Amino acid sequence: MGVMFGTDGVRGIANKDLTVDLAMRIGRAGAHVLAREKSGHRIVVGRDTRISGDMLEAALTAGICSAGVDVLRVGVLPTPAVAYLTRELEASAGVVISASHNPVEDNGIKYFGPSGYKLPDSTEEQIESLIKDPSSIPSPVGPGVGRCIELDDASERYIDFLKKSVPVDLGGITVVADCANGAASQVAPRVLEEMGARVIPIFNHPDGLNINRACGSTHLGALQEKVVKTGADLGLGFDGDADRVLAVDSRGRIVDGDQIMVICARHLKEKGQLTKNTVVATVMSNMGMHLALRESGIKVLETKVGDRYVLEECLRCGATFGGEQSGHILFLEHNTTGDGLLTALNLLAVVKSQGKPLDILAAQMERLPQILENVRVGNKNQVMSSPVLFEAIRSAEERLEGQGRVLVRPSGTESLVRVMAEGRDMGALRGLVDQLVTVVNKLA
Question: Which one of the listed residues 66, 100, 285, 326 is annotated catalytic?
Fold first, then answer.
């Protein structure tokens, strides 16, 4: 993976790190790499509701068109909608301008290949090389210049896709939908209503500045209060680009991604639709999820933290279902990336078909207590390679006697070592984490 592209595209503070010039160069380089040999020469471009989206979209579009490639502009749409439309329209690529759940000053640019999957590292490295040195990219003139084409029915296409993917009548269910003032603000209430649910939308009036502000999947307090106050059956909390969702039951209790995966995986297995009888999850998933799935005879494969790694493992082993505790969940039978609305509809389909409220379904998994501490260090690789730390972790795991686990890992983006312990005895966990934090601090 190149220096510029992280695990989820190029990100930074808009107009400071992610400048207009950089956006134009990303568009130009991406178009050259992804569309130069493809018939049609079209790239789908969508974005979330950030104020910087207009600016970056204009620059990105200019770069793509300057390389002789057409832009199919879909406007504000969820990230998974762009992935779907890229495949559906047989475009050369798709691009999303979004920083997901990050604050409004941040933004990002992420490419999808023609199949709708995120780009492999090798392709990102080609693009990054051309961003730094664009001299080999031709600049066509006259009829060779690309056009910007508005796709007026983009939302309708995505909504139709969702309804066909999960054909369920949601009549009789009342849902509070927290749209995070982001990309789900229009499509989420609409698709839920069209499928029969009574919808109470909140945070669905984006003004360019209020995306993710005290709302959405990272700030569920308002959603919890609204569900209880209105007597709704459940609540759904999307993030800014709607590629993830968390839920709230009728009593206002959070149902996280691990619980959603248990609910959906067990239902899929009962219907004979859980491919490879396998769920792919990250090392941060709660041990309670492992225990619940094991009881159902479902295999769990673990990856590093990040939906990118969940996807890679699914493709490697042939599984089609997996995700993260954050609510970024893959249903690869239907879409190529995490899709908050697709996940929400699958969860609602289980509620409807089993005739059970969400709190009963969520109780299928006992969430084990978990303590996580972040320790700032000078050299995280040196700390992680220490035999002293290795022995301390081994000793801690022995003391849990198979009734919990210890995880010590470096942050992927900061100079931190994360120390986590999980089990049924909070007192014991606290003592183990404190001891490990002391060891890490001494090594730092």
Answer: 100
Q: Does residue 428 sit in helix, strand or coil?
A: helix
Residue spans of the chain under pLDDT 50: 1-2
100 is catalytic: yes
Among residues 65, 88, 236, 212, the alpha carbon closest in space to that of 137 is found at 65
Domain boundaries, the chain: 10-152, 158-253, 255-339, 370-443
Q: What pLDDT, on the 0 to 100 scale, is given for residue 424?
A: 86
**Predicted local distance difference test score (pLDDT) of residue 257:** 97
Identify how many contiguous H helices and E strands the chain contains and give both numbers: 15, 18
Tell me how far apart the terminal alpha carbons of the chain are, to the nearest angstrom.
27
| Fold (CATH) for 158-253 | Alpha-D-Glucose-1,6-Bisphosphate; Chain A, domain 3 (3.40.120)
Q: In this structure, what token pair is assigned to residue 246?
A: 């968390």
Strand, coil or helix: 327:
coil
Q: Which fold has domain 255-339?
A: Alpha-D-Glucose-1,6-Bisphosphate; Chain A, domain 3 (3.40.120)
CATH numeric code, 370-443: 3.30.310.50
pLDDT for 38? 60
- What is the pTM assigned to this prediction? 0.90
Q: How far is CA 326 from CA 154, 238, 306, 307, 343, in A?
A: 27, 11, 10, 10, 12
Residue 248 pLDDT: 98
Single out the residue of 60, 55, 58 nearest to residue 16, CA to CA.
55
pLDDT attached to residue 7:
67
How far apart CA 250 and CA 231 sit, in angstroms, is 7
For residue 387, how many other CB atoms are within 10 A of its CB? Answer: 7
Helix (H, G, I), strand (E, B) or coil at 303: strand
Q: How far apart are CA 385 and CA 381, in angstroms?
A: 6
Which 3 state secondary structure label does DSSP give 436? helix
CATH 3.40.120.10, applies to 10-152: yes
Q: Cα separation of 197 and 201, whole Å?
A: 12
C-alpha 312/C-alpha 319 separation (Å) is 10
pLDDT in tens, 362-402: 999 998 998 999 999 989 989 999 999 999 999 999 998 87
pLDDT at 413: 66
Residue type, 225: E
Place of tokens 């691009």: 95
Q: Tell me, what's the pLDDT at 1?
A: 39
